[in-house]
Write a structure and sequence with these properties.
With about 150 residues, the chain is mainly α. It has helices at about 5-10, 15-20, 40-55, 65-75, 80-85, 90-105, 115-125, 130-140, 145-150; strands at about 20-25, 30-35.
């Protein structure tokens, strides 16, 4: 069982997260750009990316793990990665999940599934039924939906 839903989500959606911190506003004839560097997901994504970079620089990823992470970060679907690497879709998903689990373990706290659920419950005053619904979603097949779609 994976323990890294938030890490996986941050990595798969990093381009969206980056674009969400920038806001453009037209002031008279000039365009003013506002950047929200206090965005929680953005800062957490940076921590995940730094941890991943450290794993790579310290040769703590296997060759296959490095290939799969690179392919996922370039927005390839599981089926595209499957065709390009010759590995099964399940193997590709397992390698990706394994690296994300390692990152979640290193960072701890809200980067683990239980830590993330605890943070959500406190931040949004969720009751136990709502937390369980979120847990069910995190453990469902929807978890890899964005990776399964063809690009």
């Amino acid at each position: 069982m994976s323990d890294s839903w938030y890490v996986e989500t941050l990595l798969r959606n990093r381009d969206i997260i980056r674009s969400d911190i920038v806001e453009y506003e037209q002031v008279y004839e000039d365009t003013v750009v506002f950047t929200d560097f206090d965005n929680e997901d953005y800062n957490n994504m940076l921590l995940v990316e730094r941890t991943l970079k450290n794993l790579i620089e310290n040769n703590q990823l296997s060759r296959k793990e490095a290939i799969i992470i690179n392919e996922v970060l370039t927005h390839k679907s599981l089926s595209q990665i499957e065709r390009e690497t010759g590995m099964t879709r399940a193997t590709v998903a397992k390698f990706f999940e394994g690296v994300c689990d390692r990152i979640a373990f290193i960072l701890g706290g809200c980067f683990t599934d239980e830590g993330y659920l605890e943070m959500l419950a406190l931040k949004h005053n969720l009751n136990s039924a709502q937390v369980e619904k979120a847990r069910t979603y995190m453990n469902s097949n929807k978890r890899y939906y964005s990776l399964k779609k063809e690009a």
